[in-house]
Amino acid sequence: xxxxxxxxxxxxxxxxxxxxxxxxxxxxxxxxxxxxxxxxxxxxxxxxxxxxxxxxxxxxxxxxxxxxxxxxxxxxxxxxxxxxxxxxxxxxxxxxxxxxxxxxxxxxxxxxxxxxxxxxxxxxxxxxxxxxxxxxxxxxxxxxxxxxxxxxxxxxxxxxxxxxxxxxxxxxxxxxxxxxxxxxxxxxxxxxxxxxxxxxxxxxxxxxxxxxxxxxxxxxxxxxxxxxxxxxxxxxxxxxxxxxxxxxxxxxxxxxxxxxxxxxxxxxxxxxxxxxxxxxxxxxxxxxxxxxxxxxxxxxxxxxxxxxxxxxxxxxxxxxxxxxxxxxxxx
Length: 331
Description:
Radius of gyration: 20 Å
CATH superfamily of the largest domain: Response regulator
Distance between the termini: 42 Å
Structural class: alpha/beta
Strand order of the largest sheet: 7-6-8-9-10-11-12
Number of domains: 2
């Protein structure tokens, strides 16, 4: 069994929040939230968690006062999620908040009564988390990732950044969404339209990522694209370091990767996404049923380029592309 010490993190001291507010037993009279992440380093969740907590506070929910928030992590190991969910159910949580499809899948398998709010899930209908966006049904709702639409845009941006590129490799964590048919079709179509060959490679762990990158170099790949699986998100600094070690430009799913050292990211503003997730949690805490809360899609996207990584890779990025960027990171 996974011990409470292994999966429960005190997030005190982050962004000035008192240490006593997180990871300590609170009154059972206060609603209890299980907040489940995949980051191997609890501090890596600070930006999104603080956004979530601040949005709840604005709606009158203060952890340690009238709310009890339990923050747990799989350390990037999806196999831990079922035990984490079992532990949360024993603690009689009122809402489970999940980050990513594997956590959501484990939560849904564990309970059909406790409300679940997913902060990010690709194709939640296809994955059978919900019946439809407008009428989720059951005990699950949340915010869907626009993975198909953004995938094609990432291919386009990567080609604009590397105009002479002829081969890309898309790396994905199979456990995030086992059925990749739709995603592969979208990325392949976008690549063909730009005269780029696209290969799709499943990765099971960080050793597998290292091996996949080595093969990509051997096959003269011009750049890699990574999806938003918990393995990659939870180990994004190591992901960025591996890509740099193999001298491969990496297009990543959101700004957290570029901030960790990846060359470029295009995706949703994650702080805005977690703030919106807090709104859904607030509705549930006030009596709404997940079945009646439509699944949402956020629409705040940002392109971020890490100029220091570009320098280390020896890549000169044209000014017109840089002018599109929402942020340029200089180290």
